[in-house]
Amino acid sequence: MTNRSANATIKGYFYQFDHTILNILGASSSGASVVIEGIEDIDLTDGSNDVLVQCKYYEGTVYNHSVIKDAVIQMLRHYHKAGQFEKQQLRYRVFGHYKNGQDKLKQPFTLDFLKEHFLTYTESDKDKNKTKQQEFERLKLSDAQLAHFQSLLEINIDAPSYENQQSQIVTMLKMQITNCSQEDAEVFYYPNAINVIQGLAVSKDIKDRKITKAKF
After folding, report:
1. What is the pLDDT of residues 42-55, one digit of tens each?
2. CB of 94 within 8 A of CB of 113?
3. C-beta of residue 16 within 8 angstroms of C-beta of residue 55
4. Tens of pLDDT, residues 50-76
5. Which of 22, 92, 102, 122 is nearest to 58 (CA)?
């Protein structure tokens, strides 16, 4: 791994940790919780606002649909495995920052667009013969079920930069902590918040990677 790619990977993890902090601070109740590296990068449980978040930071990468295709497919597989279909309320969010290319994704997009650009891929067998695969067909999902999944799916490829997201955290800390100054937020509360999230992230057991807003 080159130094550049290593630095990008580390920055991506820090970006994810920052976004986890924002999700905790932005939760609607003290009982809301997040799991770090659970089903997805961030699993938020917040009453009727439960969401699985795939969070990526690609400041040197031009956006293409293929960059987030795997994330969408994994979310569809989770939706299928849950088996609730039209009753399911758990939402899915792809959240990412890219160098440019965001204009390639016009939203809202159609069901056919979802199928073609996010749920269709090629597989190679042992002889390197390539075949076209469509995940919705493999899972035997109807158009109605797929449309419901799409209604639960949010794709944000205009996520803030690393620095802007940190500024958002500082602003939220000042709003939620009594008499918290800009300096207090930047020098004391933000570093403490990062330490908490990093400590959770390295825990082997998933139950130890969970924290409520109240405890945080």
Report:
1. 999 998 889 999 99
2. no
3. yes
4. 999 999 999 999 999 999 999 999 999
5. 102
Q: Provide the token pair at 148.
A: 């419901």
CA distances from 205 to 13, 16, 143, 173 (A): 19, 19, 38, 29
Q: What is the spatial distance between Cα 181 and Cα 117, in angstroms, rounded to a whole number? A: 46
Which residues touch 180 (CB under 8 Å, ≥6 apart)?
173, 174, 189
Distance CA 141, CA 144 (A): 8
Please report, for residues 57, 165, 179, the alpha-carbon distance to residue 159 in angstroms, rounded to integers and kept in the order given. Answer: 9, 8, 29
pTM, entire model: 0.93
State the residue for tokens 């449309």. Answer: 147
Q: How far is CA 153 from CA 95, 102, 114, 184, in A?
A: 11, 17, 11, 37
